[in-house]
Amino acid sequence: MAAAHPDGLINLSVGTPVDPVPQVIRQALADASDAPGYPLTAGTPALRAAISAWVARACGAGVDGLGVLPSIGSKELVAWLPTLLGIGPGDVVVVPSVSYPTYEVGVRLAGATAVRSDSLTSVGPNSRVRLVWVNSPGNPTGKVLPARHLRKVVDWARERGAVVASDECYLPLGWSAEPVSVLSPEVCGGSYDGVLAVHSLSKRSNLAGYRAGFVAGDPALVAELLAVRKHAGMIVPAPVQAAMVAALQDEQHAEEQRERYRARRETLRQAFDAAGFTIEHSEAGLYLWATRGEDCWETVDWLARRGILVAPGAFYGPAGEQHVRIALTESDERVAAVAGRLAER
């Protein structure tokens, strides 16, 4: 329906990057393309050093090369983390009440039980909890969890011998609030025991097509992941590893991309505000979380008739059934056309 609009589709749904891959990264990929041998599952020494240095800058953490590991994008790691950690039937994994569907998919792949909750007090003294997922800035809501909340989650999990996995893929994209990493000393107390942070270069560096991500945190847990991933063939290709080094060492392109998203966010926020939508949370990340106070599919239909495609909130859990997720990842030209589309009868 949206594609049938006379002026074409404005796709604000999936959130796939549309801007070019920075030249410094493309050159590094090309220079490393003669790669006949097997790559290192653990990542090259250069990549491990680049990840550690970036984590120090972005997260305020002193994680060394033994506490980092590249992944084939972040989605793969999210989906398989419960299995890689040996979680299975009878175990419980806590996921946010409104969240990225792959958290729950990963729990199902492991045969474990998912519990949707934003408050660990509602989970109760459950000794079966093995893993707690947190996501800040959140997808789809853009909500930022304060350091004190994250610290309570870490303390709760440590008391029960559970792992905290923090999906921080949107950490560099703080707008009206500044996100904090679970690896920050004010959250983990300077100890990375039982804590993992998952990051991605898909949005920061437009590398969704490269499948470039990494995990950082507890060296003992990282060693477990590495041991299994070696045998499972979960290996980032050597040219992509070289591209990741270039991406992590260059902040200029990341800041330029951040400013593109900042401008698009402001344009879209003003347009949807003017059209009577209520924007909730959305203080960071790559999306606006919006509602018209109706079933999300009615909103999706209303927008599709104006050539605008968004993601229905129901995809992210029952609590999102009156919201839609609006991505910032269209071209400047398409984003600029949104206000006019929303005014159509």
CATH topology of the largest domain: Aspartate Aminotransferase, domain 2
Q: Architecture of the largest domain, according to CATH?
A: 3-Layer(aba) Sandwich
**Text of the CATH class of the largest domain:** Alpha Beta
Q: Assign a percent range to the helix content.
A: 25-40%
What's the tally of helices? 13
Radius of gyration, in angstroms, nearest whole number: 20 Å
How many strands appear in the DSSP assignment? 13
What's the number of domains? 2
CATH superfamily of the largest domain: Type I PLP-dependent aspartate aminotransferase-like (Major domain)
- Fraction in beta strands: 15-25%
Shape: globular
- The succession of helices and strands, N to C, reads EHHEHEHEHEHEHEEHHHEEHEEEHH
Q: Summarize the biggest pleated sheet.
A: 7 strands, mixed
Offer a quick outline of the entry.
The protein has helices spanning 23-31, 45-59, 73-84, 101-110, 120-123, 147-160, 185-188, 219-232, 238-249, 252-274, 296-304, 332-336, 338-342; strands at residues 10-11, 68-71, 92-95, 113-116, 129-135, 163-167, 195-200, 213-217, 278-280, 287-291, 308-309, 311-312, 324-327. By secondary structure, the protein is an alpha/beta fold. The strands form 3 sheets. Strands 2-8-7-6-5-3-4 form a 7-stranded mixed β-sheet, with helices on both faces. It has a 4-stranded antiparallel β-sheet with strand order 9-10-13-12, with helices on one face. Strands 1-11 form a two-stranded parallel ribbon.
